[in-house]
Amino acid sequence: MRPEKASDHRDLLRELREAYREYAPVSADLNRRAEAVLVDGGSHALRLMDPFPPRIASARGAWVYDEDGHQVLDFWQGHCGNILGHNPDAVAGRLAAAFSQGQGLQVGLTDRLQVEVAELICRTTATERVGLTTSGTLATMYATMLARAFAGRDLIIKIGGGWHGGQPWGLKGVGFRLDGSGFDHADSGGLSQGVIDNVLLTRYNDPDMLENQFREFGDEVAGMIVEPFIGGGGSIPATQEYLTTARRLTERCGAVLILDEVISGYHFRAGDLGALYGIQADLITLGKMVGGGMPVAAVAGRADIMSLAVRAGTVGGNEVRFSGGTYSGHPASLMAAKAALEYLIDHENEVYPRIFALGQSLRRRVESAFAGEGIYAWCSGGATEYDALPGSPLFRIHFPYAVGRQLVCPDEVFDPAICDVALRTSVVPLALLLENVHVMQGHGMVTAAHSEEHLDVLEDACRRVAHRISVSEERQAD
To answer: Which domains are seen in the chain, by residue range?
Structure first.
């Protein structure tokens, strides 16, 4: 077995990068052009990689097709948002028909789609009011503002390692630092000290720490924002005890509980994940699956809190300017949202059991493939005895040094003293891309478009990647 410490992957990464430059010359050229005109060479930092990302020409089902002519099996699936796969007929067909009939582009007026989509969200999440917007970032920002306005307090509790978008209260405690601070720092310039000071970090799945923080700061807490299935923090479900504790403590001190379900919403049932835990949040943020591949996000919740999100001047000065934007409620986006939500509701008993079974098979296959080369890999995302998940289509490949170790929070996921972080985030994704398989920094999902045959491809690719890593480590040992 591998030693219980990080290996030096620099030689292997140089080898992989050179191989990829030769493998994808068109993407390499497009990257040079992109870096000349685009900030960082792309519009979303997560999509970028060293030496350069693949540039995609088209996508369908389980596959994407890059500018170099490669057919790539994709498990990233639109930031884990395409539960039906890329460009599914149930959504794309509806849009194509609409555009052919003179519908779909922005008209700047209201329509029935906004009503119908909001009704679907309220019905499937047991919420009372919905505010529509265009991104998860905006949804979590508005939810945070609503919590602060409703409670009349300033402090927001969030998870260290949790990602709630590039908005002020989400940009503290995201990246892990090796200087001893861990997550306890701001992750962006341009933030006011007041915003930084008003975010209190807590540890995921640590109810004792949460109890202590509420005991000390409870009368200052406006709200707590937490993912019932933490995505960027490691693809790990919350324990039942943790979410139950969060609900009890927020209720007791009059704070707003925000479940950030931008990832988990409609991933485990045709509705919110909180319901499976028996937790009714005060506010829920939604995105990804809600839009069916188009930019739709929402804040849904209690009518008394959402009533603050009204037109300026209609309440007593404490309103939240949840004003949307030009493309909020965009017709094409809401057509896609309605099509996707209706499909998931109508096919709930078919879609979810199938992707849960595929997810379980994937995690087992990946772990076995690496174990065959003496590498301990653990795939997070599966249901455990401590949570309420019936199954899971989501996964992330981790490489803890201690064989048999399973991770419970971002503090462990991103600590290079516990896991081989570089192997997960850099080596394996690039090596898999050379095998025409795409995961993003070690994580992704299965969709309704995937099959066991696709998992055969992934398993074989993982075996070859594991062998490549093993050979590199043997050379390093010599």
So the answer is: 10-75+349-477 (3.90.1150.10), 89-346 (3.40.640.10)
